[in-house]
Amino acid sequence: MLENPLKWLIFILTSCMASEIALSVNNPLARNTYIIQMDKSAKPVHFSEHLKWYSSKLQSVLLKSENEGDVEDQGRIIYGYQNAFHGFAAQLSEEEAHKLEELDGVLGVFPDTVYQLHTTRSPMFLGLESKDSTNAWSQNVGDHDVIVGVLDTGIWPESASFNDTGMTPVPAHWKGICETGRAFDKRHCNRKIVGARVFYKGIEAATGKINEQNEFKSPRDQDGHGTHTAATVAGSPVPGANLLGYASGTARGMAPGARIAAYKVCWTSGCFSSDILSAVDTAVADGVNVLSISLGGGVSSYSRDSLAIATFGAMEMGVFVSCSAGNGGPDPASLTNVSPWITTVGAGTMDRNFPAAVRLGTGRSITGVSLYKGRRVLSTSKQYPLVYMGSNSSSPDPTSLCLEGTLDPHLVEGKIVICDRGISPRVQKGQVVKDAGAVGMILANTAGNGEELVADCHLLPAVAVGEKEGKFIKQYALTTRHPTATVAFFGTRLGIRPSPVVASFSSRGPNFLSLEILKPDVIAPGVNILAAWTDDLGPSSLPTDHRRVKFNILSGTSMSCPHVSGVAALIKARHPEWSPAAIKSALMTTAYVHDNTYKPLKDASTAFPSTPYDHGAGHINPLKALDPGLVYDIKAQDYFEFLCTQNLTPTQLKAFSKHSNRSCKHSLSSPGNLNYPAISALIPDKLSISSVTLHRTVTNVGPPVSTYHVAATKFRGATVTVEPPILKFTKKYQKLSYKITFTSKTRQAVPEFGGLVWKDGVHKVRSPIVIMWLTPI
């Protein structure tokens, strides 16, 4: 009986999808939004501006049966792009899109796609509050000249995290504006929030007009995600910050002296690529130095990924771009945002936790986590009836997942209900349990979550437990005549060991788009992060949650990405002349791969050591990154040469050569020779080829006179030779090259992992190494 609601739900969803597909096929005139990339240099001279040329091109493909007048009068073009990306977004039928793609001057036509958000203590955990870190947060004028553009759900300007007391005037190079709208005026921008804009034409073209009664059609953030990420990047110090008493302390961003420019691209219906693209294009023109993008979609080829193309343009303009890796872990190859010019950020834990416990009727106590604080309190000296609605402890079903409408109040009222993770949000399960009359919840991890524990601000007494303990509790509930339990909460604990640990949800490599480019690049704090919050939504984000808080605790690679964005802003302030690639190199080569017990980083999903496919180069170390010694620099032309190795057509390559009419010089013999800080050696399945040689060049950004010696991991399946083994620098910014040769000894069925380190006695410049033996397809 209880399985029927889910079966009907699946049937309805499938039927709706089939109907939608059939409608699209049977109605060739149905319009959707497409992003059209144009060859800027192909504009005929008789057009005074590019938009008129775009309109002319569009007019030429409109279906004659529509009898439409001027294209612009009909509102077909919703955006024009001219900075990081050249082209426009327009409403087209499928036939019109195909016709347009065949015209001269059109480099590509991409359907608008929906991206999803990848959704304290971290400064101290990262070493930014130690006694020797004062220089990292120095209040020099240069620190205030760095502007971070945050593409997200907007910003809640009244938060104390955006107080601009003591900040210098807005930098002269800033060209952005403060857009106004519902509940957002010019006064809401200040010397901290230097700009705020909204982008909604794409989402309105796809889903209809935004309901302004339910959603702010302005930079104001009602979701909370954007406020949280912006404060993580560059929030001003706020003493006494906490969530309902949890995680109390001073909340501050990674770069508290930096400015914030908020670009609202995400709405209740999602984040549309046409809006994101317009935001990137505008942000570059506005003058941002760093872009923080905590969202992502699927992986497309470089030439079909509009965000990859736009961020390539941003990189050309000197803008550092960091993006979240995604929350698709622990599945392999679950990454998004994998372009080599993007810094792709995974998530790790910190040494802070919010312990709670489940005490069973047998007397056994099981440790979990929770952020519950409310009027409902279960007595620790009393036991409550315990119930699990699943049929066995290993296989979740609709009822055990506590989905809407699946719990029978007669069976759960007055009891503690065990719910399996999955399908619906964790806090929503608690609401379902509460509505059914239960007094508490135990949230059990399944195989996909392993032993990783994520704390939530539940609406009833609830504790999250790991998979093994969850199975034990479920088995107890299923096999005991009168099972009972209670739950207890212990506040905030620091000094958790081991930490950091790679978060189970953090998306993983390998990067199948280009195996030679190791992704993610780094990991950063992304579990249980405290930061500013909107005043329009409760901490659980559920509409039934009427609590209001100034700060909230969230988890996701959405939280780890702004940590890296903020540290990149610190590095940019210290080294304003550095390229985006140099900043990324500093972050990667100084990252660490051991936890606070001095053992290799672990994977929360397995409790075994993680690999570079999980943690990239390692966990960021901001203080070390400010002084890396050597950097692996990459120019825009170098990235273009990498693209020349990716089997792209001349037309597809032209999408990346818009600013300077770049052409392939074929300076890279293979994609593995891109001067990337990570090293991936692919040994082909050919008897005639037993070795692979890769080349790298390092730039001295440390003491002018310095000598570096190399050390490399010993591998089972290959020998590694580095020539020369010593690099002697005589001046700052001097470049020296080396080559690393991998000679296969014994083919391995799985990749091998290790590292290469250059040492001068002060600096350790580490590159992760992956050796993969290719097999025939």
From TrEMBL:
Residues 383-471 form the PA domain. Keywords: Apoplast, Glycoprotein, Hydrolase, Protease, Secreted, Serine protease, Signal. Residues 1-24 form the signal peptide. It comes from Rhizophora mucronata. One of its GO terms (biological process) is system development. Required for arbuscular mycorrhiza (AM) development during AM symbiosis with AM fungi (e.g. Glomeromycota intraradices). This is Cucumisin. It holds the Pfam family PA. It is found in: Secreted, Extracellular space, Apoplast. The keyword NADP does not apply. PROSITE patterns: SUBTILASE, SUBTILASE_SER. The lineage of its organism: Eukaryota, Viridiplantae, Streptophyta, Embryophyta, Tracheophyta. Residues 33-118 form the Inhibitor I9 domain.
